[in-house]
Amino acid sequence: MVEKAWATRLPAIKSKADLAYESLHEAIVAGHLAPGERVNMDELARNLGVSKIPIREAVKRLESEGLLASRAHSGVVVTRVDKTESHGAFLAREVLDGLVARLAAERADDRLLADLQGVQDRMRGALRTKDTDELHRLNSEFHRLLAEASGYHILAEVTECLLVTIRRYRVTAPRDIPNWSAVIAEHDEIVDALRRRDSVAAEAAAKAHTVSQVGHEIEGQD
User: Fold this and answer.
1) Which is nearest to 16 in space by CA: 47, 63, 58?
2) pLDDT, tens digit, for every residue of 151-173?
3) Are 68 and 79 in contact (CB under 8 A)?
4) Which 8-state DSSP code applies to residue 15?
5) Three-point CA angle 89, 101, 112, nearest 5°
6) pLDDT tens by residue, 103-153
7) DSSP summary character for residue 69
8) What CA–CA distance (Å, rounded) separates 151 from 141?
9) Which of 11, 118, 163, 178 is the most buried (most CB within 10 A)?
10) Distance from first CA to last CA of the chain, Å, rounded?
11) How far apart are CA 142 and CA 120, in angstroms?
């Protein structure tokens, strides 16, 4: 078979622009670069040990995603969190998480239940030590497991996209420990429904969980 010109093997090593993009993206969604903060491209290039060319490429990608913006007198800045868009992301999560939980309940097996319970146990441990970074990570893991259990790759992809988006919005949201107790309890309701293979209850519990968090993370900022 003659190999097509466009089908040549891609290099396994990421480009400097890709690495710069990943570093900047993580800094923004994790809140290390705060909304409205100016990005010092010269300093960033020095810290990452690259020239300004891959930094500029990374910035262009992040501008296209709405995470960075070029201002006439401020240079490149991190875009501010839009409360309306944040609410929209949670509305999307409400519908998606309900669907994912319903499908997961129809396919739930012992391994999924054990994995979810393991996440819940680790979340309780992180709650005791007030490790909010670990709580955020484990919360995302819980929802990824559900999405993967739905049986549809597209639902897992969209879930991942929304997890990243909402993580970005949470930079300005309250992160109090009592709310994390509520998150864990709400997760328990979902797991209990999965354990009973009750798809209707699983969907309702997942939607209620998202609505509860809208009240805390969006309305609670007023």
Assistant:
1) 58
2) 999 999 999 888 887 777 766 55
3) yes
4) P
5) 125
6) 999 999 999 999 999 999 999 999 999 998 899 889 999 999 999 999 999
7) E
8) 16
9) 163
10) 64
11) 8
With contact defined as beta carbons under 8 Å apart, do 100 and 106 qualify? no
Contact 138, 126 (CB under 8 A): yes
The total of other beta-carbon atoms located within 10 Å of residue 62's CB is 21
Would you tell me the crossing angle of helices 153-169 and 83-107 to the nearest 10 degrees?
140
User: How many beta carbons lie within 10 A of that of residue 82, not counting itself?
Assistant: 13
Its pTM surpasses 0.90: no
Place of tokens 């998606």: 96
Rounded Cα–Cα distance for residues 120 and 157 (Å): 23
Q: pLDDT confidence of 199, banded at 50, 70, 90?
A: very high
Going by C-alpha positions, the residue among 114, 169, 160 that lies closest to residue 140 is 160
Burial string for 146-163 (b: 16+ CB within 10 Å, else e) reads: bbbbbeeeebbebbeebb
Contact 25, 168 (CB under 8 A): no
Instruction: Return d(Cα 3, Cα 25) in angstroms, integer.
Output: 36
